[in-house]
Amino acid sequence: MAFTAPKQLLRPQIHSSAAPRRGKHPSSDRSMAPKPSIFGACKKSLSAFSASAVSFAAAAGGGFILLASSSPPPIDGGGGGGWYRGGGGDGGGFWSNLFSPLVALAKEEGGPGREWDPHGLPANIVVQLNKLSGLKRYKISDILLFDRRRSTTVAGTEDSFFEMVSLRNGGVYTKAQLQSELENLAASGMFEKVDLQGKTKPDGTLALTVSFAESTWQSADAFRCINVGLMPQTKQMEMDPDMTEREKLEYFRSQEREYRRRIERSRSCLLPVTVRREVMQMLRERGKVSARLLQRIRDRVQKWYQDEGYACAQVVNFGNLNTKEVVCEVVEGDITQLDIQFLDKLGNLCEGNTHLAVIRRELPRQLRPGHVFNIEAGKQALRNINSLALFSNIEVNPRPDEKNEGGIIVEIKLREMDQKTAEVSTEWSIVPGRDGRPTLASVQPGGTVSFEHRNINGLNRSIVGSVTSSNLLNPQDDLSFKLEYVHPYLDGVTNPRNRTFRTSCFNSRKLSPVFTGGPGVDEVPPVWIDRVGFKANITESFTRQSKFTYGLVMEEITTRDETTSICTHGARVLPSGGLSMDGPPTTLSGTGIDRMAFAQANITRDNTKFLNGATVGERDVFQLDQGLGIGSNFPFFNRHQLTLTRFIPLKNVEEGIGKSPPPVLVLHGHYGGCVGDLPSYDAFTLGGPYSVRGYNMGELGACRNIIELATELRIPVKNTHVYLFAEHGNDLGSSKDVKGNPTEFFRRAGHGSSYGAGVKLGMVRAEYAMDHNSGTGAVFFRFGERF
Question: Which residue ranges does the record assign to the Bacterial surface antigen (D15) domain (predicted)?
């Protein structure tokens, strides 16, 4: 004997959603979610396991759903292999609320708040259904369930069988509807006997009592779970009531053989051994198999699927009842097709510019045909596609495959960004005029002009350019620019090797922290470093967390003073007020202009992630610059750096929206070294917000070798976090090996420590740091993260 149930209507969401209540249809409208989002899902039952009408359901918590069938159940329970589909009539409640046309009609015509007719009978008398008037609409004020075996009466919602009853308190129903409900319950096969009777109330309403004795079958000592998705439904022959006993026996045997063949053709389900052992324990403890036991088994099986992200999986049938083995049939939600669609700004289907191969290579294997749909794979697809930065809206929408019973079609709907964009951002620096007041001529507009042409030829290639100046009226003073071309999929879109080629030309100007005074030193004339050049590299991504970059850099470096004149040496203020111009040389050539070419490589392993808003994991970066002996004075050098950072959660917390983040301990170490020719502007500097906090940029020294150690304890507070930190930096005695010894010339210590506390305010870090060298403290405001 077997029981069959279509799947509940599911709407898996990345973001929060409300489960439909019992007795109510879930909305057929798609819920909107923050973009990118994954929504939609099994809006209909994933497959029809019956030749007759299917009743859809919206079972709260996920329940069995019985398929309607005109075939009567075998009287003896079906022997060992018969496959019985309970139900009957026009559909009815089984494991959950079934919304057949009849029940829907009851809801429409006599739902809560609708007009109804008083029963017109004396109060507090028991009335059988056949005694009710076929012309009246009765209001049901209470529903009770009476278990004949247990001799107990409970409120409907407190009994697990209540999910099989489609009637609801406050509903208005006709006599025909109540009789149909009784027929559905009787035909479900879950009851040896079931009856429905009313009790009149003084207010003219009826209280209904469902009196039942649940069906039981012989004990079982084996449990099997099979995946019946994508299997064609075998039509069951109708049993002729005029059959002889021999013909009936042959009929049941044929049904048994049919079901055995079905089991043989099915696939093993994903249910792990641990859950199967739990089910076996249930079977051993309860002895005989009962309807309530099947409910418990169903709930446990479906809970595992839901917990593991298989949002479209559903238990649809129990077979082999009255044998030593219970067979649980599951439609797991096998993906049969992947459908990628492009939408215009109005949400209409259109032809996209992006090649489909670009999108397909970003999809996890678990989201491709032949696999079972998993909502976590859908989330991963969202993240991967979003990382392309080509789409303004992304939807991953699984829906039933109407051509393949039990199959899932994964729809990916994409809205492309504009290919060409341009932006202008401006800022003004107001400088004093001759009389100390700003005039129109002294208002200097600065800003950045940027443009981007993305997704060239639909292959995610792009050209990005920007021009920046602090004075757009006279941009030649400090004009900087960058023009970059990005060419992903260097080995072809269909090649699994993931390499991206980048080439750029640039011009930049930055203040050098090498030429900075130490504590107590008067203001040091600044030295600006102008770089103009060309860079080309290839980045190969081994995994989402690991990548390797290698390439060539050719540049010209010019050192300038604050008047933009070429500067060959650093300077400091003498006690007399004059400038000492015999400081460290600013370039390797000694002329203030260097030209060089060097190879550059970088390997990064980043396993960090966000846990309820807190960064946890580990990040390792190794960078190598190798001089090629090409350029001014034929520079040949090897500069290398290693950075290790660990974000260690100090408490196990539950992951989810609205959950509190854990306290995190951050451990950080950075080592850098250089062998060979080293110009001053490329020396390692100590001190600053990203080196040793509490000091200015380069305030501790400039050196060939460097080591930095830091620790930070982050404690979550409401929607932010406070933190304590301690840091140390040391030049390892290598400052003297830098040409001109800038550390000694500018009277810097070459090492230093700091400690303090801070709070994160949005993107700003407000910190109080103690300078361990001088014993003084100060408040700093910084943007971004330290690590």
Answer: 455-786
